[in-house]
Amino acid sequence: MYQFEYHRPKTLDEVTALLARLESPKILAGGMTLLATMKQRLAAPSDLIDLQDVTGIAGISVDAKNVTIGAMTCHHDVASSKDVAKAIPALAYLAGRIGDPLVRHRGTIGGSIANNDPSADYPAACLGLGATIVTNSREIPADDYFRGMFETALKENEIIVKIVFPIPQGAAYQKFPNPASRYAMVGVFVAKTAAGVRVAVTGAGPGVFRMTAMETALAKNFSAAAIDGITAPVEEMLQDMHASSEYRAALTSVMAKRAVAGVSA
Questions:
Q1: E-only strand ranges, the chain
Q2: What whole-number percentage of the chain has pLDDT above 90?
Q3: 216 lies in a domain?
Q4: CB within 10 Å: which end of the chain, N or C, has fewer?
């Protein structure tokens, strides 16, 4: 690991001031990806800005329409929240199946969404529920936020403050996890929302994406049978040592059917 300076600000204003004046800083949320990358000498920031003590960007609130989760809220807190489990059970379920206990107690929702790993779980929930990512300067709809592999709409020095999830009529998440990392080889989030059915897929392609063909079919007949035969395009799927592109394409159908059945149950 290369030498760096460590900062622990207490306000967002302090964070933005540090970002503006430092040479090559990185924000540290849970550190689940960044610290590992630094240990491998694949990243060498001049400074780490730890958000752990920053006020106002952690915690969960629920009202009649939305579940709002602060960016520095760890996965365990989402998974164990009775309020989240009551309002959006699928979101609590998803959070409880991220990584292992260590990852769930240290990793944060904001860090996950900012990193936008193509196999991460939270992007599927954001896109599937039509969430809004709120930063220190604006609000970004999930449909506009995720741009591709490790790429988002965040601008330089922009910081995620919270994520607002509209409460759906029903939702479910199903994933086929890598047995070692617990990342999704394919994960599908299905939600019945006020604006219609949304189906979001993670792990299968270079970034999270919506399955519009499935959404159209489910809008007419919300049943697992309605999406029989609908799979993601093989040529757009990831292929690696864990699974072929054909296997991942087939899994999108299997996981989607299971998620639809979960919503209907």
A1: 5-7, 25-28, 47-50, 60-62, 66-70, 132-135, 139-141, 146-148, 151-152, 160-166, 170-177, 184-193, 196-202, 209-210
A2: 94
A3: yes
A4: C
